[in-house]
């Protein structure tokens, strides 16, 4: 029995040995399955792709081509996803992906698949909305912030299309002074360094006209403590407490522009408003003179050192400046006095903006109520020192105002209004109403009243007038 089994086993071995031999080179290799994929995410400069895992694959090769069929990147990964950055916005790309098997495997590389995707376009920047306001001889252009803007570019051109000034500004406010009379166009566009946004937006434009805005001017004498000499210069008042000493160091076209903080305070300082460089070492503004012997003067404007006082009739400006020779600060002095100024009434003729406020008991129940309103009034000339205008609060009545330029005051004598009331000062029904002329050319009345039978019907009254 055992012998028969042995004989049968030998026969099987002999049969196997008689078969043709086989090695690895004779095995027919098959390609890996083709994967399936999709675009996962797209931004303005990145694309993310994913694909299915292929059984038997150990890694995946990929190539990315742009819309001109130019190879952008080629690489291999063991993952089933890839993110490619630093791409162009709004551009279609094609990703080719194929599978690799392990070395020694009986599988070959799969056929590639193609995945197409497009990067998103850059987001557009908004256009600034421009406004123009006149502030004492300066034309101030402002605009609200544009979302995602990091800076703004501007170009100012005149009516001939010639560029007057250009540059960049992040403060959203431009102030132009000393412009020649005529028409101008300001163009402003947003700039951005933020990713995903266009580097620049479209220009917004605004036209404006430069007119003669001088309220008054006076010729005076400028004394330079640094040089120890004096010369003739001119002070110009533009309104809104803005002034300019033109030809301040004796050279035409070189001015000292400043704004007074509070004209009611004779010891108040002024703020430099011109386009001057600032010196951190001396805490001064570097103001050009146009001279060859002293090209710049360093003006120290704060803390009650540089002072303004006066009106169009007379006054002075103390300019606190740095002297290199003295190694200390010294004071220049500009002063003026106008003997004859022409007709004071002429300065008031025209349209004014009026703002009135206070308390009135001329009501249905005779209880005091607040009034606060604005209106536009016309002022006319009566004679050289007298003007006529709507009465305060009683605007359907007319009052005559006497001008006193020596004291910068206005006076209205008591008068009857609405038949029953006497319009007069706050002291009594026989006291005049006194107004004040401000340095910027505006004027105001405070403490006026309406009297009946010795009783005042108005309180805390204020009326302010400006161009």
Quaternary organisation: single chain
**Record field, number of beta strands:** 39
Helix content: under 10%
Major β-sheet profile: 11 strands, antiparallel
Low-pLDDT ranges: 1-27
Terminal-residue CA separation? 135 Å
Indicate the structural class: mainly beta
Note the overall shape. Answer: elongated
Secondary structure tally, helices: 1
Residue-averaged pLDDT = 86
Radius of gyration over C-alpha positions, nearest whole angstrom: 43 Å
How much strand?
over 45%
Describe this entry's structure for a reader.
By secondary structure, this protein is mostly beta strands. The chain contains 1 helix and 39 strands. Strands 17, 18, 19, 20, 21, 22, 23, 24, 25, 26 and 27 form an 11-stranded antiparallel sheet that branches. It is elongated, with a radius of gyration of 43 Å.
List descriptors:
single chain; eleven-stranded antiparallel sheet; 39 strands; mainly beta; 467 residues; eight-stranded antiparallel β-barrel
In short:
This protein is mainly beta and 467 residues long. It is 3% helix and 52% strand.
Question: How are the SSEs ordered, and which strands pair?
Answer:
Elements: H1 2-17, E1 30-31, E2 37-42, E3 47-51, E4 57-65, E5 71-77, E6 81-84, E7 92-101, E8 107-108, E9 113-118, E10 130-135, E11 138-143, E12 151-158, E13 163-169, E14 173-176, E15 182-191, E16 204-210, E17 216-224, E18 229-239, E19 242-246, E20 256-260, E21 270-272, E22 277-279, E23 284-288, E24 296-299, E25 307-310, E26 314-323, E27 328-337, E28 350-360, E29 369-383, E30 386-390, E31 398-404, E32 409-412, E33 415-417, E34 421-425, E35 433-437, E36 443-446, E37 448-452, E38 455-456, E39 458-466
């Amino acid at each position: 029995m055992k012998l028969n089994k042995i004989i049968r086993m030998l026969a099987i071995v002999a049969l196997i040995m008689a078969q043709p031999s086989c090695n690895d080179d004779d095995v027919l290799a098959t390609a890996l399955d083709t994967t399936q994929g999709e675009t996962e995410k797209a931004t303005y400069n990145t694309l993310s792709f994913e694909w299915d895992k292929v059984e038997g694959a150990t890694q995946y090769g990929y190539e990315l081509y742009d819309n001109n069929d130019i190879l952008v990147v080629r690489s291999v990964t063991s993952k089933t996803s890839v993110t490619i950055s630093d791409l162009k916005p709004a551009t279609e790309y094609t990703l080719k992906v194929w599978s690799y098997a392990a070395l020694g495997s009986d599988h070959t590389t799969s056929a590639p698949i193609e995945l197409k995707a497009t990067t998103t376009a850059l987001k557009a920047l908004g256009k600034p909305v421009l406004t123009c306001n006149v502030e004492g001889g300066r034309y101030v252009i402002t605009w609200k912030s544009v979302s995602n803007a990091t800076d703004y570019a501007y170009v100012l051109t005149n009516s001939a299309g010639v560029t007057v000034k250009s540059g960049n500004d992040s403060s959203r406010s431009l102030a132009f002074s000393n412009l020649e009379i005529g028409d101008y166009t300001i163009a402003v566009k947003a700039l951005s360094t933020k990713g995903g946004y266009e580097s620049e937006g479209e220009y917004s434009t605004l036209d404006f006209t430069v007119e003669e805005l001088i309220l008054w001017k006076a010729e005076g004498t400028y004394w330079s403590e640094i040089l120890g000499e004096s010369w003739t210069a001119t002070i110009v008042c533009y309104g809104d407490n803005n002034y300019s000493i033109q030809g301040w160091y004796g050279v035409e076209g070189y001015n000292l522009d400043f704004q007074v903080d509070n004209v009611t305070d004779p010891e108040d300082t002024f703020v430099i408003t011109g386009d001057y460089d600032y010196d951190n070492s001396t805490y001064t503004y570097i103001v050009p003179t146009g001279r060859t012997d002293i090209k710049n003067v360093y003006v120290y404007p704060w803390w009650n050192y540089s002072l303004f006082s006066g009106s169009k009739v007379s006054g002075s400006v103390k300019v606190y400046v740095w002297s290199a020779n003295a190694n200390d600060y010294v004071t220049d002095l500009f002063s003026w006095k106008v003997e004859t100024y022409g007709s004071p009434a002429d300065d008031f003729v025209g349209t004014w903006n009026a703002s009135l406020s206070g308390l009135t008991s001329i009501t249905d129940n005779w209880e005091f109520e607040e009034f606060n309103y604005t209106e536009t009034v016309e002022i006319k000339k009566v004679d050289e020192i007298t003007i006529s205008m709507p009465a305060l609060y009683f605007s359907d009545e007319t009052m005559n105002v006497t001008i006193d330029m020596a004291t910068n005051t206005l006076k209205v004598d008591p008068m009857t209004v609405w038949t029953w009331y006497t319009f007069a000062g706050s002291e009594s029904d026989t006291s005049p109403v006194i107004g004040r002329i401000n340095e910027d050319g505006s004027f105001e009345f405070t403490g006026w009243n309406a009297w009946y039978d010795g009783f005042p019907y108005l309180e805390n009254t204020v009326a302010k007038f400006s161009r």
